[in-house]
Amino acid sequence: MGTNVENYRSCIEYKEILRILQKSSFLPENIIWQNIGGKRVIIPIENLEIDFMARDLVVSSGEDLTHLSSEYPLYVKLDYHSTVFKVLNYQVSPHLITFEIPKEMKTPELRTDSRSAISNAGQKTIMISPFLNEKTSKGEELKIQLVDVSINGLGLLISEKNKSYIRNHRVFWLHSMDDQILEYPLLAEVVYISSEYFSLKDKTFKFGMKLSKPLPKPLFEKLTKSLTLH
Q: Burial, 23: exposed, middle or buried (Cβ in 10 Å; 0-12, 13-18, 19+)?
């Protein structure tokens, strides 16, 4: 079994890691594998349990696990979004493996369509709010710098001050882009927030939003005109 992680992104946000584990615990195709002496041993996971107190994962299987070697790392592939992660330290009993909740996972890049990066010289912004109605939104709007855009998603920068606001709401209405008010607001969901500074000088973090519907074609073409496709 091989997993090409070329188009994967790193997930290091603890809440997102927990969400992936919780969703995976209800799915049937979770597996563990280990490479020993050039041979790959694949073990189906029967149950995935999160120990919140110890911050551990307890994995059970109907197969005998005592042949696994602690000298080699384990690799876990979860059914949810084909997420993968590596485990270096673990305890094995005949049908259980216990290890710490991983600090990093690899998940497929959520936007497979081409994106356009926006240079600092050509700064563009969007306006979002947790409310659909503009009157209700007064005082709750956020004007945010856009760093890349695709037809179905946005890469954005948020200040340290507003990071918790973005994390707590998760779902917003997109009201305008590049000072152009949308005819109909678009629903946008936060799908990741980086835990590392995008710019240490400005103390900004990058986060990504998935749009419920594609951007209007004229607006998308206006935004991406003369920009570099990635």
A: middle
Instruction: List the structure tokens of 83.
Output: 């997420």
Tokens standing for residue 9: 């992104």
What domains lie within the chain, and their CATH numbers? 8-108 (2.30.110.10), 116-225 (2.40.10.220)
pLDDT per position in the chain (230 positions), as tens?
455 555 677 788 888 899 899 989 888 889 999 998 888 889 999 999 999 999 999 999 999 998 898 889 999 999 888 899 999 999 999 999 999 999 999 887 655 566 666 665 457 889 999 888 755 556 678 899 998 888 888 999 999 889 888 988 888 999 998 888 888 899 998 888 887 778 778 888 889 898 988 888 888 888 777 454 44
